[in-house]
Amino acid sequence: MSKKSKENDDIILTGQYLGVVEEYLPDKQSTYIRDGQIYATKSGLITLDNKKKQIEIKTHQEKDRKIVKIGDIVIGTVLFLRQYSIGINFYTINRKIHFNSYYFGNIHVSQIADRYVEKISEAFQITDILRARVIKQKYNEFELTTADKNLGVIYADCVICGTPLDKIGYNKLRCQRCGNQESRKLSSDYRNISEVLRF
Ligand SMILES: [Zn+2]
């Protein structure tokens, strides 16, 4: 009656048998013990420390929290504009939403688009939601770019009245409530995406 021992990153469901206490040192937050047998108290992926024999269940979000790599696609909100860059908080990395943590990114004016951008405010405004690609890591900050067709603003509100803006042309937006017209560096799927954007 030997049960196959678990491997790192095995998918586990709540209540699933994991092994015996002679085999593993179970984590109190994610497992419980009954008659010397270890069971999962939540669903997720197994994390095994083979040296310490520790066993723990982590969700996708927990496992991926700290991992941001060059080339990743992220979604975030514009926090502030400077003369030559913007600051962004991003929460979504490669379509996975990280509810428990966020990261900070910068986009330099030269990384906004393939063409020359004279004024940052013609490409972004505070509270815009945008998609970008990670190009560099500096300590705990990330350098991002939106210089691609599928990168740039995916959702923007009117700076005057807060109504979501409609696309009326290449990098052109219009507010149907107050008539205000604005420009942005738009992603090709502006306001036409299925991902969850409001947190
Ligand atoms: Zn408006």
Question: Could you list some keywords that capture this structure?
Answer:
1 helix; OB fold (Dihydrolipoamide Acetyltransferase, E2P); mainly beta; 4-stranded mixed β-sheet; 5-stranded mixed β-barrel; binds zinc ion; 41% strand; 199 residues; elongated
Explain what this protein looks like in three dimensions.
The chain is mainly β and 199 residues long. It has two domains: 11-58, RNA polymerase II/Efflux pump adaptor protein, barrel-sandwich hybrid domain (OB fold (Dihydrolipoamide Acetyltransferase, E2P), Beta Barrel), CATH 2.40.50; 73-183, Nucleic acid-binding proteins (OB fold (Dihydrolipoamide Acetyltransferase, E2P), Beta Barrel). It is 3% helix and 41% strand. It has a five-stranded mixed barrel. A four-stranded mixed β-sheet has the order 1-6-7-3. A hairpin with a 2-residue loop joins strand 12 and strand 13. The radius of gyration is 23 Å and the shape is elongated. The model has no long low-confidence stretch (mean pLDDT 88). The structure holds zinc ion (ZN). Residues 158, 160-161, 163, 175, 177-178, 180 line the site of zinc ion.
